[in-house]
Write a structure and sequence with these properties.
There is one protein chain. The protein has 1 helix and 9 strands; from the N terminus they run E-E-E-E-E-H-E-E-E-E. The protein is mainly beta. It has 2 domains: 39 residues, no CATH class; 59 residues, no CATH class. A 5-stranded antiparallel beta sheet has the order 8-7-6-5-9. Strands 1-2 form a two-stranded antiparallel sheet. The radius of gyration is 18 Å and the shape is globular.
């Protein structure tokens, strides 16, 4: 299957992605030329969150497009998790239990 790369105006082979197939990755550092290579995509851990505080409700509406799903970017041993909204415009830390601003649903 070929996918049009609108940013650079050409097509690139594409194998799928989240199912473990290969996806195109580009390297622009090779003397200004475009070299494509492939790496295996991995499945991202997802959770859904609900805002509790007024600040979180504002971020939820304006930065997260009212979409509850987030990608877990990092987990710490103390129960804190770093999340990225699926809109990819808001990133935040939260406690998995008893967070003042967010709750996991």
């Amino acid at each position: 299957m070929m996918v049009n790369d609108a940013l650079h105006g050409h097509t690139a082979p594409y194998g799928g992605g989240l199912d473990g197939s290969l996806v195109p990755v580009y390297n622009d550092l090779c003397r200004g030329s475009r070299v494509s290579f492939f790496m295996k995509a991995s499945k991202a851990e997802m959770i859904c969150v609900q805002p509790k505080s007024s600040k979180a409700k504002n971020r939820f509406a304006n930065e997260m497009d009212k979409l509850h799903s987030c990608v877990v970017k990092h987990r710490r041993e103390d129960g804190k998790i770093f999340l990225a909204s699926i809109s990819n415009r808001y990133f935040f830390w939260m406690s998995e239990v008893n967070d003042d601003h967010w709750e996991i649903v």
